[in-house]
Amino acid sequence: MILTGHEIRRQIDENHITVTPFDPGCLNPNSIDLSLDDTILRYRDPIIDPRVEPEVTEHKIPEEGLLLEPMSFCLGSSREIVGSTRYVPMVHAKSSTARAGLFVHVTADLIDIGSIGTITFQLFSTLALRVYPGMRIAQMSFWKPQGEITLYSGKYQGSAGPRKSMIFRDRHWETLPL
Fold first, then answer.
1. Which are the contacts of 65, defined by CB distance < 8 A and separation ≥ 6?
2. Rounded CA gap, 156 and 160, in Å?
3. Which of 7, 18, 35, 134 could form a disulfide with 3 if both were Cys (CB 3.0 to 4.6 A apart)?
4. Do the Cβ atoms of 108 and 77 come closer than 8 Å?
5. How many Cα atoms occupy the beta-carbon half-sphere of 105 within 13 Å?
6. Do residues 121 and 76 make contact, with C-beta atoms less than 8 angstroms apart?
7. H/E element, 67
8. Where do the domains of the chain lie, and which CATH numbers do they carry?
9. Residue 43 phi/psi, 5° resolution?
């Protein structure tokens, strides 16, 4: 069952959903908009080895915007700290953003229940596109789980700003040959 915008607001007021800062103007019929913060990360190495911690460069998005080149990839994050210990958040691109040629968070749209922090957006631009800090770039819906709840306590808990891949920390790499 998906929560309506009115129910999202009620659950925020009752502290069952975290959205900080909260702007009531960002509520939609069954979601809430998330905005882009002012920092992006780019991977330095053109080849990512999932067993090795990747190096990244950090870039501030200026107020006049940052041009994303066609077929480029970077990591951004929400300005908002979001999450819930009662509901399952899902992140989706805003249709207007997608129609402008920017794929947002298409690889990990399901956020684990209990995860509270900023959302890292995987930004893949198919066209030349300028992004701005504060731009509404995604939306989050909330779903009611069924069954016993186990809260998330993984490596991305408490994220602040964009987070690079932490796949190198996964324990299954120890059993694979180098």
1. 130, 131, 132
2. 9
3. 7
4. no
5. 28
6. yes
7. strand 66-68
8. 5-45+54-145 (2.70.40.10)
9. -70, 140
pLDDT tens across 67-125, in order?
A: 999 999 999 999 999 999 999 999 999 999 989 999 997 667 888 999 999 999 999 99
* C-alpha dihedral (81, 82, 85, 90), degrees to nearest 10: -150
106: buried, middle or exposed (CB in 10 Å: 19+, 13-18, 0-12)? Answer: middle
| Weakest-pLDDT range from 10-14, 18-22, 169-173 | 169-173
**Phi, psi (deg, nearest 5) at residue 98:** -65, -40
Name the token pair of 116.
Answer: 């509270």
Neighbours of 119 (CB within 10 A): 29
* Residue type at position 89: P
Q: Position 155: which residue type?
A: K
Alpha-carbon distances, residue 104 vs 11, 76, 93, 147, 170 (angstroms): 26, 9, 5, 30, 24
With H, G, I as helix, E, B as strand and everything else as coil, classify residue 53: coil
Residue matched to tokens 């800062």: 21
Q: Which of 28, 22, 35, 25 is nearest to 6 (CA)?
A: 28
Which one-letter amino acid corresponds to residue 58? E
